[in-house]
Amino acid sequence: MKKIEVCCGKSCSGMGSRRILDFLIAKLGLKPGEENDTMSLNTSPCMGYCARSPNIRINDDHFIFGANVKNVLSDIEKGGKYVEPQILDLTDDFLNDLS
């Protein structure tokens, strides 16, 4: 089963992720939070790839960057591009470096 998540962060939303989500809802017959035998559809907060908006994540580690309505279904079928998971170090307080 393909787990499809459409980014709804500010950058992706500004670059058309809502239009892509509406298109997927119509074509797949799924609403966010629903699934069928082959895929699930959901939304996600910012995925961290804002410069490559709008983004879709497939199965947690494959991405479609710069998604568009014209190619999104074929890009999902192809499975997207594998991206090594990001590890964020939230313990580093870089703001103290400015003083």
From TrEMBL:
InterPro entries: NuoE_dom (IPR042128), Thioredoxin-like_sf (IPR036249). Pfam families: 2Fe-2S_thioredx. It comes from the Bacteria. Gene3D superfamilies: Glutaredoxin. This is (2Fe-2S) ferredoxin domain-containing protein.
